[in-house]
Amino acid sequence: MDNLFDVIVVGSGPAGLTAAIYTSRADLKTKVVAGSKWGGQLMLTTMVENYPGFPDGVMGPELMERMRKQAERFGTVFADKDVTTVETGEKFSVNMGGEKVEGRSLLIATGALTRWIGVPGEEKLIGRGVSTCAPCDAAFFKGRKVAVVGGGDAAMEEALVLTKFAEEITIIHRRDEFKASKIMQDRVLNHLKISVMWNTEVVEVLGESKVEGVRLKSQIPNPKSQTNKNFQNPKKISETASEMVWEMQVDGVFVAIGHAPASELFKGKAETDEKGFILRGKNETYRTMTNIPGVFVAGDVHDGVYKQAVTAAGYGCEAALEIEKWLEEKAVTG
């Protein structure tokens, strides 16, 4: 059957593509349902400096293109379509609109999705000044003032990309220190275009047809932010002894506060933890298998700790080797 595969991989980030390289190379008929926007989070990044084998770094999309070509070289078949439903049973069915494929095994490698702030005005202005991808949208803000929300490496990278275009970048962080790696912090804190608003939260994105500003809630006193010129003469909305609500004019808001596991497709099927990360089962032989026999998991959809491209690739390798072994055992035992 043309639509029956040994392995169906749902997802096309480092975990899914690494797994496909291994399973295809093992002569297992492999289908990657990659999604209409394939490649995972690395397609939205610029320079990746910490992936082994690239001493000068590599652009995220280039790295994913190379992985895909490597998988295709060994015979992996790709469908750049979005999954609508997944059915589990004796065989596993993946539906992509009007098309359906079946597999003897299934790998969940759907990765993670952007986590939004969840404040008024944000959803309405997505694509009209609210963004999660500086490499995609920075050029639209040439000579403008923008805000970056977050405190991890992703927020640092967003801010640094924006310095090539924006006139002024303000990082808004709810704590008084970043979670980002020291090297990324140093780059941001030493950049003349970037300032930081510490102990501050976005409570609303302002604007009707486009972003015009943000409403903020800042702790006071807030000595670490006193050097930020926007904080020195704020447009106050309200003030108490411990906090101030005020407004700052910006033309864009870049949200970089993390990601949530893309596990919704498998809700009610594969077991998850309270945050939605898909759990590996308790099979001592097949550690990457979920609670469903024949369904395996790899990458950020199950990893809430490391969340790195290299660890996702490692999980993909691990799952692929176990899938190969499981299919061999199933063939022998019937």
From TrEMBL:
Transmembrane segments annotated in the record for this chain: none
Residue stretches making up the FAD/NAD(P)-binding domain: 5-314
One annotated GO molecular function: oxidoreductase activity, acting on a sulfur group of donors, NAD(P) as acceptor
UniProt keyword terms in alphabetical order: Disulfide bond, FAD, Flavoprotein, Oxidoreductase, Redox-active center
PROSITE patterns: PYRIDINE_REDOX_2
Name of a matching Pfam family: Pyr_redox_2
Database matches in Gene3D superfamilies: FAD/NAD(P)-binding domain
Protein name per Swiss-Prot or TrEMBL: FAD/NAD(P)-binding domain-containing protein
